[in-house]
Amino acid sequence: MPERDREPNRLPSRWPLQAAAVVIVLCSAAAVSPASAAPPVADTPLAPTPPRPAKPPATSLSTDDLRFVDEAQMTSHLEISASEMALEVSKDPKVHAFARQMVEDHKEALGALRGIAADKGITPQERVPEAPELTRLKSLKAGEFDQAYIRTIGIDAHEQAVLLFQNQATRGKDPALRAFAARMLPALREHLKQARTMDQRVTANR
Predict the structure, then answer these.
(1) Three-state SS string across 97-129, please?
(2) DSSP 150
(3) Tens digits of per-residue pLDDT, 63-80?
(4) Which of 91, 87, 70 is nearest to 168 (CA)?
(5) Residue 53 DSSP code
(6) Which of 89, 119, 200, 201 is most buried (most C-beta within 10 Å)?
(7) Is the pTM of this model over 0.85?
């Protein structure tokens, strides 16, 4: 019998290549198998966004600046309330004209002051205690009222206001409040001048 018939059966020569290909495919499948893949990250709810802190005041006011805001506000309230009373009680057209101007000018000043205070993080009080001057004026009639109004509100209150605003304009620490005080001073001085002239007229008519 020929010797090649005695050789054991051999696999075709291409079998090692086919086996290697099968092994590679199985390994690749195992690499991407769901069982071996990393577990998906569970969806976690996002933490709520914390609210933004309130905007801090642009500048911190000194004690003197805060006192000016309070006193200037009370001065304007006094001027406005007393002048509105004069429009109801007085019979003198000149007093009416003066009182109307006081209401307009001091309401404008009060609005400007509140705007500056708001920028500094301050909320001025909407209502202030009634001043003793108003209590006294409420008890007066006609001519007596005119004279008391002109002297108490027109002269005395404006003399104090001029000193208050002059001090703030020259010594205040906050630039916005200093500018506000300086801007208001000419009007306050004019009010005082008009009140002194009015006082002479009212006194001469009595």
Answers:
(1) HHHHHHHHHHHHHHHHHHHHHHHCCCCCCCCCC
(2) I
(3) 999 999 999 999 999 999
(4) 70
(5) P
(6) 89
(7) no
